[in-house]
Amino acid sequence: MEAVDRALGFLEKFVISVGLGAATLLLFANVVARYFFHTGFSWVLELVEYLFAWVVLIGAAHGFRSGTHLGIDILVERFSPANQRRIALLALGACLLFVGLVWWYSVQYTLRIHEWGDLTLDLQIPQWIPYLAIPVGLGLMFIHLLQVGWEIWRGKTLRIHTHEAGEALKSMEDI
User: Fold this and answer.
1) 53-108 confidence digits (pLDDT tens)
2) Where is the Tripartite ATP-independent periplasmic transporters DctQ component domain (predicted)?
3) How far apart (Å, rounded) are the C-alpha atoms in residues 77 and 96?
4) Rounded mean pLDDT, 125-141
5) pTM score, two decimals?
6) d(CA 37, CA 113)
7) Are 34 and 26 in contact (CB under 8 A)?
8) Which of 42, 47, 79, 141 has its CA 20 to 30 A from that of 123?
9) Confidence band of 1 (pLDDT split at 50, 70, 90)
10) Cβ partners under 8 Å of residue 47, min gap 6
C-alpha cells in the first residue's frame, strides 16, 4: 500500500510539474512567435487550457494528500478533542459525498462525450481525453480523502487540512 501511495504522489507531482512547465513554455513560444515573427500557433491556447484543467484537478487532489487546503477551524478549536474528531469526520463525510457524486456524474458525462466521438476544435483529438481530467482528479481526491479519514479515525490527526496557526503557536512555545 505504501508503494502505491508513493507512486500516486510521484504521478501527481509529475503531472503538475510537467503540465505547468509545458504550459509556460508553450505560451512563451507563442508570444515570441507572435511578436517577433508575426505568426503563432493556433492550437497552443486550447492545449494550455487542457493542461491547466489537468493541473488544477490533479493539484486539488494533491492538496488533500498534503493537507494544503484551507480550513477555518476557529470554532472547532473550542471543542474537546473527541468532539473535534467527530466534527472532522462529519466534514470528511460531506466532502466524500460531494466528491463522490461529482465523480459519478463526471464519469457519466465523459462516457457520453466518448460515445459522441467529437474532436477538439484546434488539436483534433477526441474530446473525451481533456474531459477525463475531471473523473481522474476527483477519483484521486476521493482516495486522498479516504486516507485522511483513516488518519482521523485512528486519532493521528483531527483535521482534513494542515493547522498552520497551531503549528506556529507550538513553534513559538519552543523558543
Assistant:
1) 999 999 999 998 888 877 777 788 888 989 999 999 999 999 999 999 999 999 99
2) 24-154
3) 22
4) 97
5) 0.87
6) 38
7) no
8) 141
9) confident
10) 26, 122, 123
What is the grid cell recorded at 74?
A: 476557529
Q: What are phi and psi of 92, to 5 degrees?
A: -65, -40
For residues 143 and 141, give the distance between their C-alpha atoms in angstroms, rounded to a whole number: 5
Cell digits for 56?
A: 488544477
Cell 473525451 identifies what position? 128
- pLDDT above 70: residue 117: yes
End-to-end CA distance of the chain: 38
Grid cell locating 64: 488533500
What span, in angstroms and rounded, lies between the C-alpha atoms of 147 and 20? 26
Place of cell 480550513: 71
Residue corresponding to grid cell 507572435: 34
Give the span between the Cα atoms of 143 and 136, in whole angstroms. 11
What would you report as the CA-atom Rg of the chain, rounded to the nearest whole angstrom?
20
If phi > 0 it is left, if psi is from -120 to 50 it is alpha, else beta; for residue 18 that is: alpha
Rounded Cα distance between 45 and 53, Å, is: 12
Joined grid coordinates for residue 4: 502505491
Side chain identity at residue 88, one-letter code:
A
